[in-house]
Amino acid sequence: RGVSRESGALWTEPGCRICTCQEGRVLCDTVSCSIPCSHPLPAPAGGCCPTCTGCLHEGVARAEGDVFSPSDGNCSVCVCLAGNVSCLSPECPPGSCPGPSPSDCCSCHPAKCSFRGRTYAHGARFSLDGDGCTTCVCQGGEVECSFAPCPVLDCPQHQWHLRPGQCCSSCRDPPAPTGCFLDDNGVEFPVGQLWSPGDPCELCICQADGSVSCRRTECLETCPYPIHIPGQCCPDCSAGCTYMGRVFSNNETFPSELDPCLSCICLVR
């Protein structure tokens, strides 16, 4: 093509073909892309291979570290990390059900109870007229009544509460959890908060009941000589090569430390 090339030179031709000069002959082959992530972005303008510097999820490009909700609106929370999309769903406490709003996934309004001309909310406790020790409860639209001696309460006496019409005291309901506390440093995370606890491959979420649920990011099969970037979960095959403890950029040639007569080259394959 009218250009002189030195023996051993390596260059890229239009159409994503990589060529090399070997003893007066030009050998070309199509660029082979190794994609070490599950949701890569399309190749940028002038590039040949998709990139893991962001995520393409459900046709929408997401930047590195973006936190978003999927289009199905099932209360899951997703995050883009190194071209991989990880999603976590909040675990609702027993007795709750998914709500219509992603910001309040565990709220619900169970069936009310109609009993002797009165309406009671789900979970409401009350006594029959004239019998303060017969306790009834509304559960999912049905009323269950029972007679029992007063139980031994496991809360301090200042938390005892005698409701009108009842013969037994009960403990006041504790406030609903507003977040998660970490014992090691006392930091509180709000419900739904995502964070990485020091390991870039681990992602945690604060559940609605105050518990913490964690999940590890699984890296896809990678190349033989990837670069391990500090703070990044998965090794990077697109940034260059790590060989014999040294880092080389793409298309960089260097002498072999095992044989001074050998010349090596870092290729994105």
From TrEMBL:
SUPFAM superfamilies referenced in this protein's UniProt entry, alphabetically: FnI-like domain
Location relative to the cell: Secreted
GO-annotated cellular components: cytoplasm; extracellular region
Gene3D superfamilies (UniProt xref): 6.20.200.20, Complement Module, domain 1 (2.10.70.10)
GO biological process: cellular response to virus
Keyword annotations of the record: Glycoprotein, Secreted, Signal
Top-level taxonomic group: Eukaryota
Keyword presence, Signal: yes
Domain VWFC: 1-53, 53-114, 111-172, 178-238
Record InterPro entries: vWF_C/EGF_Fibrillin, VWF_dom
Protein name: VWCE protein
Organism of provenance: Sakesphorus luctuosus
